[in-house]
Amino acid sequence: MNVTVENLAPCKKLVRIELESKDVDAAFDSMLKDFQRQASLPGFRPGKAPRDMIAKRYEKDIHDEVKKKLIPDAYRKAVDEQNEFFMGLWSRLTLGESAMCDRRAGRSCAAGT
User: Fold this and answer.
1) H or E segment and range at residue 7
2) Is this structure's pTM higher than 0.70?
């Protein structure tokens, strides 16, 4: 994990956190397994639908859940690492384009950081 803090103003800072692609991949795979266990698609027994179909059908939901899991954890670690306390709400919670690779094409994020 790489953390950078930019001073935008005396009371305003930009905290940029870069996660390792393998961590994002692991979180995505874990969430995909959870969705696969719970999903019920027509033509398949509950929990027995193929991973590719689950990933395609629930892609947005899986990405949202991965964000909900990774961002707060990474933020807490960054605060501990920087030994600073950041008050206020996050103005933008995103996972960068390099983190969320094109999974529909079957590419892994492990190649790029």
Assistant:
1) strand 2-9
2) no
Say if residues 74 and 99 touch (Cβ distance below 8 Å): no
Q: Which residues make Cβ contacts (< 8 Å) with residue 25, sequence separation at least 6?
A: 108, 109, 110
How far is residue 33's CA from residue 35's CA, in Å, rounded to a whole number?
A: 5
Domain that holds residue 72: 2-83
* Residue 62, domain CATH: 3.30.70.1050
pLDDT in tens, 77-104: 888 887 776 665 555 555 554 444 444 4
The residues, ordered by sequence, that sit 6+ positions from 66 with a Cβ below 8 Å of its Cβ are 24, 27, 28, 31, 95
* pLDDT in the model for residue 107: 42
